[in-house]
Model the fold of this input.
Amino acid sequence: MCNRALSCKTAVPIDLVSLERHHTPTLERLSEIGAYCSQTQQNSKTAFHSCFGSALECRPTKPTASVLDTFTLKTYHAHMIPQWIIEKKRDGHELSEEEIKFWIEGYTDGSIPDYQMAALAMAIYFKGMELPEISALTDAMMHSGSLVDTSGINRYKADKHSTGGIGDKVSLILAPLVACCDIAIPMISGRGLGITGGTLDKMESIKGYRTDLTIPEFLKVVDECGCSIIGQTLDLAPADKKLYALRDVTGTVQSIPLISASIMSKKLAEGMDGLVLDVKWGNGAFMKTKEDAEALAKVMVGIGSSMGRDMTAVLTDMNQPLGRTAGNALEVIETIEALQGNGADDLMEVTLTLSAHMLILAGKADNLQSAIAILQEHIDTGRAYDKFLLMIEMQGGDIEVIQKPELLPKAKIEHEYLATATGYIAEMSADKVGRACLELGAGRRAVTDKIDYAVGISDIHKIGDSVEKGEPILTLHANDHQKLEIALKHLDQGIVISTEKPVAPKLIGKTIRPEQA
Done:
């Protein structure tokens, strides 16, 4: 034990971070410290060192909850020292909820600078976090800004989130489809960055459609239409916006705790009752392996469940594009076809599976089979398509371009990519298709880049499809010949034709529920 620390009677302030890093003084001594801290807000690192001396070499014992209760939150935060929190995580220790709240509040208001946030992010990257820490981080980031108050909507509120892929237009179909089942869908979505397409970019290819609704406008559309798709407001999880940008330039993007907190802080701020996650894996996904995707899914389900939300995650394959198109206006056209009952098999399998899980969470169906039957009826009767039109109209969009898709942005150049041999498609790399779309202008290298809504790729063949030499296996839509040539080179590296028919990859993988997280 550190006798010098325990016997010191000098009334000096002390931050609670130090109490977790070193042996805890007696309850009597803590009461003295607490009394002093209630009278002063002075920083006390120097005084602490002079008082506790060799205690710096001691290992931590956490104070009890009753001890912590003697300190006000304001006093507790005032006596925390950021670099000691960094050291604590660097050494592999679990951060407390109050330390995490202090940190996120400080980073949001600027009192904790980027370089210290970068250091903590790197410590988290290497040492990880336990679920209680990740939940606390998510909660702190969620409360760093305003929350969407959906209490005035007297229906079950649900949303779906995808970790991103190529040709993923599921949200555009799912939102109006599930809204037909008396479930409110308040969907706050993102833009594309890199090879991953963004839901907002697809919706903004519809003339006049507003993704910048105010929160009252957003809630009005959700209440009256049943669904709305908008972008993240400036005051929604601002801590995440800052941290997301920092992670991108500090090599800390690939961290499951940070990924999970980023996704869940934004989604939980929407005020939904239930959330279904589409966690993708493969060469066109953020997570490259099933194992990593499952780990991420379990963490996010655990976070949501711990915060009182109904949660389900589904693992899906993203080794080839989803559906027949990749781009923006091209994917809106495919969305229209799907809502009219002509969707590609793989696209509808994912859409109906995720939608069915939302119905189960909301208590509208007991199992996937009955839920899918309900959903299919809404497609067959045209109600889902009509709901899509209503949402677009209420958000300022021109529904004529939906009724006449030929009015959507159209590229000047259409180039058919021909099969180089007779056989079967053995590989249609989602990664290479995504890179080709990026080169054409359908995506962004930087957040400031402008999107060309017209360009992309359509008529994409699937793994296992038979082809004849010289037969078109996809079509590129371009507005620039030089960009077209670069895109073709990416496709040459990502399309393989085999003489033997390959086994088609299984699209839907594991389902993760709270009891498995």
User: Anything to note?
Assistant: The radius of gyration is 26 Å. The chain is about 45% helix and 15% strand. Residues 480 and 489 are 15 Å apart (CA to CA).
